[in-house]
Amino acid sequence: MLITSIGQGLLWAPLVIGVFLTFRILNIPDLTTEGSFPLGAAVTISSMLAGQSAIVASLLGFVAGCLAGWVTGVLDTKLKMPSLLAGILTMTGLYSINMHIMGKANIPLLDQKTLMGWLPASWSLNLQTIVIGSVVTLVVLAGLIWLFQTRLGLSLMATGNNPAMSAANGIYTDRMVIIGYMLSNGLIALSGGLIAQSNGYADIGMGIGTIVIGLASVLVGEIFLHGRQIWVRLTGMVVGAIIYRYLLTLAIGLGFPVNDLKILSAAILVIVICLPLLQNKYRTKRQLRRYLKEIGVDQHATTNYSERPTLAKSLLSRNQQRAAPLKGRESND
After folding, report:
1. Which has the least CB within 10 A, 118, 241, 261, 287?
2. pLDDT tens for residues 89-126?
């Protein structure tokens, strides 16, 4: 179960990293994900059926995702549409484009050689998936770590942190946003092509719920591995993808219906969003109890609404008593 989760998580890792780029780096919730993911699968499988190798087909899927991201970026920056609306429009249009590319709702691979087929046939499917997923993920991580050390990458991060200040310092923020959209959706489409090769088919509905999967994996990764350095954050996305796939695999092993996996994905997302909020709330209450204990106030008084005025008066009288000696000293001076 764990080996299968690692292999599938590595194939989903480019999607999680792509969602991370728009959601965390650019602070944009991009819904193009649900259209660019099946776009990458459709282009990859159709190219392989047309005689292209698996490597070339996967790269074509990446380029197709970049074009989809470019469309969303232009709608967002040049036509001044809200980012959510721009993503929805692109996602809706990609449904028809994917149907035209595939010709039907589902296209299977026949005898085409996938990326896993380049490895020795004596290896198990899980081992082949782990090796291919590791190679692709390492290439993506190395490329992004290098990118964010360049001026372009730093400008991209600055645009997400403070667009106004970035523009004031001569950064073309619209261009940076478009590049972020393109890179994000290119990686998402690449992940779609890898998943399609692993499954052996491309389906028009395989993108439904991918934005929830991506966001949940991003938040899970930030919980288990967080830091300020970009390589730590990107590695956390890979860890989050693996942990998320393991949770789904564990749910299936426990008898959870396959048709309810989307509900489980939404539930995981709700949990990982609410967990930090509950932790902060608990930490704040604990600090308040410690403070009230230090000043000698009954901590239970803060929970009783009728006693709050009395507590406020007692705190005010204590402050006045402490201030009285200071006033006396000032008058003597």
Report:
1. 287
2. 999 999 999 999 999 999 998 888 889 888 888 888 88
Closest by CA position to 223, among listed 211, 248, 240: 240
Joined together, the tokens standing for residue 104 give 């039907």
Q: For residue 291, what are the contacts with CB-CB under 8 A and spacing of at least 6?
A: none
Nearest C-alpha neighbor of 213 from the set 245, 255, 171 = 245
d(CA 180, CA 195): 23
Residue 129 and residue 117 in contact, taking contact as beta carbons nearer than 8 Å: no
Residue range 274-303, pLDDT digits in tens: 877 787 788 888 888 887 777 776 655 555
3-state helix vs strand vs coil in the chain, percent to 5: 80, 0, 20
**How far is Cα 129 from Cα 198, in angstroms, rounded to an integer?**
8
Q: Is 107 helix (H, G, I), strand (E, B) or coil?
A: strand
Contact 181, 72 (CB under 8 A): yes
